[in-house]
């Protein structure tokens, strides 16, 4: 039983996840209807105690209140009301962005809550069993779960084995095996036992279980600002102060210039709101939430936003060889005959001798004989009076005796011994070939035959690890992004080197023990590098905790899940690469929108400054390069553009900017062109169009 | 030769001279600040002031050194002026009034050299040479020391140690400023600048009055005035005075001296952080802005606009005929893009746009190339801001020169960029809002506003040049500009040194192809854009009401 691995159907993609093109992080889902649905939440967020978290938007809120009061004092002034209305919209749009981002998590949380129905636990008290509510369980309590029971809390199986339906958490319908001891002992509260009986030792308090944490994570309740987000907020706040000073001090300057009338408090407030970085201020928290959400959509739970940010900075990836870089098993790649034997003869013998070998390696030999040498697959029944010798771990060979001919295939040592036993000869060729294969990192299997001509070795089967398709390209991509991949394997250095070379990884750690892994991480970190790794076993836990990004497989032990800062519900180690890309995309989105936001200011000045001062200094009308219709329409257009751009960018903030792995130079050049230059130019066009529309309203143009 | 061609040739000659000096001087300065050895005279100084030049200082200690030394300097300079009447060699001048003495002391210690006094009518040899000229050396050396401390913050890791302030101060003075000044002074004397301790000469009667000429140690003070980006002239006419700046050659030499150390320090920076290319990127940023501003200035000043300008061949009002429009424009841009503030022409008389260029130059924070030391640290702060915003766009949390720009770093950089705009705008607004300060304006309208805006821009940015026209010798202006100069100098230094400490404590982040490369032309372009947008936009409304309104009025 202990060799059994949980088999699972390929994970069905969650509906929210579009089929991602290779090498590109797909965006999240954005549906304009979400804007309407989240509107009430957006209004609720107008609470100043919540607004103060974003200093930029708090200033806009104060501005909105101020202009409302001013407009109310002069109710006949349509301009004052128009500005007031659009300032309120600016504030609400910002809240809307956040509400939409959070709304998507809420839906997910509701699904999870359903799984967390109040369960009744069958607690073991000594030898007797008592029924208690799941919420009363304490750490180290023992509970019994049988087929049909919902597991009442997180814990480890200490007795028995059962198949468990974890679809409530992973969305994966195929059941998994959970058993006592080893790396598959962890069970999650809220999942359902489908068969057999297990005894679970509870490891978490109620309310702190995995499912509870998941709910609070996807809801954003546990969301804390990440370090980079805090730093960006500081910069935005200081820019806000700078612009506040520029606008406040403008009043005495304008009075001196004789532009007192044109610089009413309403106009100055409008100018201030246009200048402070509202675009990024409004979208900043939505970007962060959406980043976490993109991970959730890929079935990855980040326990902290900090880890997502760190993922963008990772410069070393530690990847386990088996299952991540290579397919799980070695496969036959080549038949190499010794001198005097034809390839077809060897293939035939290899196939015959492997029919009784049900291991993946054995099957791959049959497949190679068929695909590479056109030998039709025979099954054991087809050959009458054949005596099959099945592969066992003890004999380490398999074969068949048929019509006085005995064919054997197996490990070098076993076959050599067998041939010698039959007093046959070992061709010196065979030695050379096996050495060559071993040097190339492969595993040689000998094929031998005994017939009328005596016992002899026919040739060698070259078994090798098969690198997953597309891995080399993935690693090339990572290299272009400046990320070094290190393959971790238990193989000997020779084999490891060969696979590393074939897969295109930058480095490898052979014959790796958990201690070696830990030492490697510490060495990389001492050089200032950030390290990401995946792991599932208890012995991975220290390394997972030490790594900057530690992704625990959901199939892993609770110790591993506890130690990592992310959990992959699909238990797919390759996903580490996607996690890194999502981290980068999050940071790029933040930077791009900040750049865009700041670059926008130039055009707004060209709209508002002439509107305010062209009366005092007619020459300044030359700055009105957009030829806006009137001072009022110019200022209003700038304010409207400033508000609408927030809504226009909500999808971008939620989906993240387009991201393709590339070097920093290429990415910077592209993003600067799109968001820097675009940010300079776009408002000139936008404000002009809005102004054209406004001037069509009778009585304004 | 047409005046335009003459101007362009002067500019090219200047660029060539700066390029020649760049490597040797930059490398030499790097050696000065990393050498282990002390020169004999330096040891005497250390003994005299009781400092141990070999102890390493963390940033608070370094800052204490800067502030204590500067405080003592202010007090010393203040007392020297207040006691002038009792000192020998005072040429009969009396004690300076308290508000003006404070203003002058603050001004020279803050490397600003704003002068609300007339040198030849107020200051004797002792104050000029024993007080002001000495501060010209020391305030410049303080600036370089702070810049070097910040560079060490980038270069060092896992330590909070930034070097020794006393050693940096003394070495900068003894090994860099003094030797170059001596050579420069000799060349200036050769050009015709005066150097003596003669008294006041009556040089006869003129229509409407008499004229007096002062002798003095002019050439020596002139050399360090430019080299240390100080700018306080011996005479009120500053570098327009023939005793200070006799001819076209001396004019070019003075501009060369102004720009020499600030530009070359980028090489020193590159050497100390282990990549001269990083220095080139910073140099490139400075050079693009400087050349761009100079070209704009020459264009606007040469542009013939109206019959008077056409006859004069350009906007010659307020400019010396011996320098012409070219030599004056290059000087005006060099002096306002550094914290020098020396003038060889009157910025108030420039075209509206020309005056605007001088103001914008200062408002950018004087970082292209900026004052000695202060230009480099100001530019590095802007680089941090640029890296922070754009660095995110490469998908990593921002880092510069292998150091993470995290919360603490950005907090300090953000405080730095807040200070001067706050000082300039608040003081100008106060001056405009209050009833009396406006009486000091000699012009009305936009030009009058420019005078006051220029004064606080110059003070808070430690430039020291004046727009002329403004009567700044009032209690209000002496006090507020004095405060602006002190706060505009030392508050940023507090944040720079704190930042240096934070950086030096970090462990370095290795560079990969995923790292934003800050040694490339792309980064230079980005940095120029960031500087123009972030600092430029701060002042756009104010500039619109001053020089822009004036320049666009036709």
UniProtKB/TrEMBL annotation, chain A:
ATP binds at residues 357, 361, 391-398, 409. Its EC number is 7.2.2.6. Residues 118-219 form the P-type ATPase A domain. Mg(2+) binds at residues 536, 540. Residues 1-24 are annotated as: Disordered. It catalyses: K(+)(out) + ATP + H2O = K(+)(in) + ADP + phosphate + H(+). The active site is at 320 (4-aspartylphosphate intermediate). Keywords: ATP-binding, Cell membrane, Ion transport, Magnesium, Membrane, Metal-binding, Nucleotide-binding, Phosphoprotein, Potassium, Potassium transport, Translocase, Transmembrane, Transmembrane helix, Transport. Belongs to the cation transport ATPase (P-type) (TC 3.A.3) family. Type IA subfamily. PANTHER family: POTASSIUM-TRANSPORTING ATPASE ATP-BINDING SUBUNIT. Part of the high-affinity ATP-driven potassium transport (or Kdp) system, which catalyzes the hydrolysis of ATP coupled with the electrogenic transport of potassium into the cytoplasm. This subunit is responsible for energy coupling to the transport system and for the release of the potassium ions to the cytoplasm. This is Potassium-transporting ATPase ATP-binding subunit. It comes from Streptomyces albipurpureus. The lineage of its organism: Bacteria, Bacillati, Actinomycetota, Actinomycetes, Kitasatosporales.
Automatic annotation (TrEMBL), chain B:
The chain crosses the membrane at residues 61-80, 137-155, 176-198, 249-268, 280-299, 376-394, 415-434, 481-504, 525-549. Its main location: membrane. Keywords: Cell membrane, Ion transport, Membrane, Potassium, Potassium transport, Transmembrane, Transmembrane helix, Transport. The keyword Cell membrane applies. It comes from the Bacteria. It is a multi-pass membrane protein. It is found in: Cell membrane. PANTHER family: POTASSIUM-TRANSPORTING ATPASE A CHAIN (PTHR30607), POTASSIUM-TRANSPORTING ATPASE POTASSIUM-BINDING SUBUNIT (PTHR30607:SF2). Belongs to the KdpA family. The system is composed of three essential subunits: KdpA, KdpB and KdpC. Part of the high-affinity ATP-driven potassium transport (or Kdp) system, which catalyzes the hydrolysis of ATP coupled with the electrogenic transport of potassium into the cytoplasm. This subunit binds the extracellular potassium ions and delivers the ions to the membrane domain of KdpB through an intramembrane tunnel. HAMAP family: KdpA. This is Potassium-transporting ATPase potassium-binding subunit. The gene is kdpA.
